[in-house]
Amino acid sequence: MQLMSEKGAAGGGLRERKKRATRAALTEAAVRLAAEHGADKVTVEAISAAAGVSVRTFFNYFDTREDAFVVLDADAGARMRRAVLDAPAGRSPLEALREAMAAELAEAEQQHELWRLHAEVLHASPHLLARGVGAHMAAEADLADAIAARLRGAPGDGERPADPGLYPRLLATVATAAVRTSVDHWSAHQQEAAFLDVFHEVFALLAAGLPAPGA
Predict the structure, then answer these.
(1) Residues 121, 115: Cα–Cα separation, whole Å
(2) pTM summary value
(3) Which bin fits 156, alpha (ψ -120 to 50), beta or left (φ > 0)?
(4) What gap in Å lies between CA 101 and CA 4, rounded to an integer?
(5) Segment-wise mean pLDDT, segments of 10 residues, the chain, 215 residues
């Protein structure tokens, strides 16, 4: 779930928007080139040229060539964490997390091809897949910290506890799995429902305690 939503892209000053756009262009170029040629055959020079920037600019955004393939939007996790912390007090942790994720996934249908290519690139390269899994685990840990901070009534900007607790960790993990399930189901049934409808149905099932069908 590393998609930059239109809402997220609109935030910040002009300089920050340009930086996000450049990073997004580099990532998309890397993924598309890797999908066509294989990640191991894609050079920094080729990625930079496809994105219309210099090699020096590439290294302003990524430490290594491999970093360009791992996530589609490195800022998505921070935006979701902030959204969870800033959600209205009356919302449950599940509701706050659902809305934070929905805001990031609002453009999912338009970006589906890039998501598909990204998944193909990672699964074709075990070392990139391992790094992708690590990135997802780190994002889950950040979400768990945000949920824990929300439950404590803390702003979330101070020192984080060593362990956010069982409930925040479980909720972050289950919600992330719910997003993956939503994407997989929608990908196989695109003609039947809009993605966000599937997403909200999945979270409604979670909120209801996952009752068995017909129960």
Answers:
(1) 10
(2) 0.81
(3) left
(4) 11
(5) 39 80 95 96 98 97 96 88 94 94 79 87 94 92 94 68 86 93 85 88 93 79
**What is the DSSP code string of 39-73?**
GGG--HHHHHHHHTS-HHHHHHH-SSTTHHHH-S-
Q: Which two tokens stand for residue 164?
A: 């956010």
Say how far apart CA 36 and CA 136 lie, in whole Å: 24
The predicted-structure confidence for 64-104, as pLDDT tens digits, reads as follows 999 999 998 888 889 999 999 999 999 999 999 999 999 88
39-54 tens-digit pLDDT: 999 999 999 999 999 9
Sign of the C-alpha dihedral computed for residues 199, 148, 143 and 96 taken in this order: positive
By three-state DSSP, how is residue 169 classified? Answer: helix
Rounded Cα distance, 164 and 15, in Å: 35
DSSP state of 4: P
Nearest to 186 by CA among 100, 90, 115: 115
Collapsed DSSP state (helix, strand, coil) of residue 110: coil
